[in-house]
Amino acid sequence: MVLARSGLWQEVVNVPASQTFLMPEGMSFEEAAALLVNYITAYMILFDFGNLRPNQSVLIHMAAGGVGTAAIQLCKTVENVTIFGTASASKHDSLKESGVAHPIDYRTMDYAEEVRKISPKGVDIVLDPLGGSDTSKAFNLLKPMGKLITYGVANLLTGQKKNLMAMAKTWWNQFSISALQLLHHNKAVCGYHLGYMDEEFELVGGVVAKLVNLYSQGKIKPKIDSVWPFDQVADAMKQMQEKKNVGKVILVPEAPKE
């Protein structure tokens, strides 16, 4: 298994040995491709920043995506964690089967209002890959001692191309808070970007070892939505941008043999 910030969409890659990890027995190559980025991100957000404990509640945005499905599985390794997950309605049955107690259709509902109906005080942890005004909503949804972990700005992308108006709107609505406000609210805000941890070999390696152990115990298993050859990368990306996938979209040099 390989970690690299870029350059993996090719048949042969050259990476430092410190960024490679042995696949556990029984793992497929597709699962190995789906494991590292998604599960390291979800694990460090939930446990290193979030300090997830039994009987807590978590809101997972884009719950049917790669990090979302990883986070759901990792939440289930902790006793009695209540999971809220946002996704389009067509994915709700799959989310319920995977352990999401409360799927929310963000396209037709105000997810903050839906969370409040079920949990008036809010949630303990919010995983925020959206940015902009959604980060403010996430902060307001936290219980006292709650933690917001932001790890992306998906709101910058609308459709297949970057929309300058959407980018400007997201920038204008970007969440901003002072240390004094954090003190008054008894809440925490954290930022996470795995791409800027490529020198933290010991830290990341320790997380990978824990994930491999969880995989070997059958507690986590990467969910593969589909596998695409390099010459169909445009179709694969379109499926992701249209948010039709449940789990990870995988690229391979050649089409899988039937």
Automatic annotation (TrEMBL):
Please list every transmembrane segment annotated in the UniProt record, as residue ranges.
none
One cellular component term from this protein's GO annotations in UniProt: mitochondrial outer membrane
**Which gene is transcribed and translated to give this protein?**
VAT1
Which molecular function GO terms apply here?
Answer: oxidoreductase activity; zinc ion binding
Q: Which Gene3D superfamilies match?
A: Medium-chain alcohol dehydrogenases, catalytic domain
InterPro entries, A to Z: ER (IPR020843), GroES-like_sf (IPR011032), NAD(P)-bd_dom_sf (IPR036291), Quin_OxRdtase/zeta-crystal_CS (IPR002364), SV-ATPase_mito-regulator (IPR052100)
Where does the Enoyl reductase (ER) domain lie? 7-251
Q: Which UniProt keywords apply?
A: Acetylation, Oxidoreductase
- Known Pfam families for this protein? ADH_zinc_N_2 (PF13602)
Q: Does the keyword Oxidoreductase apply?
A: yes
- Could you name the domain of life of the organism this protein comes from? Eukaryota
The protein here is known as Vesicle amine transport 1
Q: Name one GO biological process term.
A: negative regulation of mitochondrial fusion
What broad taxonomic lineage does this protein's source fall under?
Eukaryota, Metazoa, Chordata, Craniata, Vertebrata
Q: Which CDD domains match?
A: MDR3
Could you say which residues form the signal peptide?
Answer: none
Q: Which organism is it from?
A: Athene cunicularia
